[in-house]
Amino acid sequence: MQQHGDLNHQPSVFEVTLRTQFSELRRMIGSPQVYLPLKLKFGDMAEAFISEQMLAFLKKDELLRITSIFGSGADSVSVMSGVLVGGVASRHNATHLHAALIQFVPNSQNPQIHTSNYAGNQTEIGNYGQLFRPRIYRFSAQRRPGTRYPAQGTAALDREATNLPFCINHLQSNDAHGHRVLCGWINRIFPSIKWVQAPYKENNFELFCLPQLPEARRDDLATPLSRMGAGIGNVIAMLYVVLTSREPQVIAIDEPNAFLHPRALRELLAILESEGKQHQFILTAHSADVLTAVNTRTISLLDFDGVATTVQQVGPKDLHALRGGLAELGIRMTDLHAKDRVFWVEGQTEELVMPELLRWACPEVAAGTSVLRVERTGTFSKKGLNPEEIAQIYERLSSSSALVPPMVCILLDRENRTAESRESIEKSSLGKLRFLDRKMLENYLLHPGAVAAAIEELEQTTSVDAVREKLCGVLCVPDLASDLSGLDAAQALESVFSDLSDAAIEFRKTRDVPVLVAWILENEPEFLAPLRTCLRRSFGLQDWSER
């Protein structure tokens, strides 16, 4: 028996299932004869009863499923299943299914249905599966649609989009309204392009983009697609399929964000969602915009751990609940995408400066950490509410879905909590609730040089000595080497900013704290060594002095 991490010496086999309706399948076959396999053993029931049930099935136009099995360990096998049709999608018994031959007679209300026990029906069903190949488009991340094409061709876009110029010319010549709709979609995505056309030149159709509508008669401004950005041709090809396909298609797009501006990507996905409802889209991407721009049916996450790839799926119900839970906390999925962990902090100011502080204090984890602020932090101090219970809300969110990375902890201001109170809360929350070693973040930033720089950045003149003297006076300490950890540093900074500017400016946390942090990290980073120790402890990392 193989264990996780063992090398796989077995042949690889995978299944691909397509769903269609019988009426659609019949149109694609284009023949009066259609074979469907029976899941009943031949002879178990009278043919008349089978015919009756099959007729009911056809009238309801039930969904059919065609499952193809591929890989080095399996012959190419297709199994069709439905109401009376079915069987296990397995290469061991697929060729032993029995068949119902449906014969459609002209001018007859009901088709003739006959049963058979021959194995040749499997070949017929395999052929049915091949009918769907032209209706599966895969736009790869390296896609390069054709820009020139010979005069002979078909209006159906080929799977590599090489005949795109011929298709655009055919659309413009035979469906002027449809061509104008297509140009309108393209203009939504690329505002600088008002029109696309593919005139016949030098024995080829060549695709051009125009910045003006044809009424302007400025063909001299037309730019060949071959000289445009790669994303434009890709978008035109995708939209052409959506516009012209008379039957549902499976459209697989690898990295739809490739070669596209984020705004253009959002417009493209909005058009695909609103105008292509009859199609099935399979999108693979590393972009968070893809997750949030459309109402996805499922999200599958593929994670390679160095040995094996694991797949985790999030269904629509789970996805809606997850998005709702994130919205209640003021979080977007884009805040969490492609991150390994979430670090919750006190408020907006901490959310602004903590990424920079982590890059300095905890460089080994900073890149994979999303820093988010805790909403409604007042709930942590309300009577009757245990802080650890609030922490559990965030912990459950982090563990509810593979889309949300695990949380490191929630780091709050110490405020006036005693050492015993902080220790008790941290212990009861299993380390998920932690506190700064000082009253608030500003207590780590009382550096006279940094404060003077922040004041001068607001176009007020001061000096480092004046700031030092004012801080000592406001804090009622002989010098700044005293223990300042329990004092109200924010109030002290408010007084310093106001007094040294004759009330011309006021201290604003979200504006001024980032300036203080940046100045200290650039000029005297070791001044923040106590904060570094606190942050590294929060991440469970070895203290800097012990490295």
Description of the molecule:
- Helix 6 packs parallel to helix 7.
- Residues 41-46, 74-78, 82-97 and 381-385 have low confidence and may be disordered.
- The two termini are 43 Å apart.
- The chain contains 19 helices and 21 strands.
- It is α/β, with parallel strands linked by helices.
- The strands form seven sheets. A four-stranded parallel β-sheet has the order 19-18-20-21. It has a three-stranded antiparallel β-sheet with strand order 1-3-4. The protein has a three-stranded antiparallel β-sheet with strand order 2-5-6, sandwiched between helices.
- Strand 5 and strand 6 form a beta hairpin.
- The protein is elongated, with a radius of gyration of 33 Å.
- Helix content is 38%, strand content 18%.
- The chain has four domains: 13-131, no CATH class; 138-293, 3-Layer(aba) Sandwich (Rossmann fold), CATH 3.40.50; 333-435, no CATH class; 441-546, no CATH class.
Identify the CATH class of the largest domain: Alpha Beta
> What count of domains describes the coordinates?
4
Using the 3D structure, state the CATH architecture of the largest domain.
3-Layer(aba) Sandwich
Measure the end-to-end span: 43 Å
CATH homologous superfamily designation of the largest domain: P-loop containing nucleotide triphosphate hydrolases
CATH domain fold name of the largest domain: Rossmann fold
Average pLDDT value?
77
Strand order of the largest sheet: 19-18-20-21
Give the tally of β-strands.
21
How much strand content do the residues show? 15-25%
Question: Which bin fits the share of residues in helices?
Answer: 25-40%
Q: Which stretches are low in confidence, meaning pLDDT under 50 for 5 or more residues running?
A: 41-46, 74-78, 82-97, 381-385
- Using the CA coordinates, give the radius of gyration: 33 Å
Structural class: alpha/beta
Work out the helix count.
Answer: 19
Largest sheet: 4 strands, parallel
Dominant shape: elongated
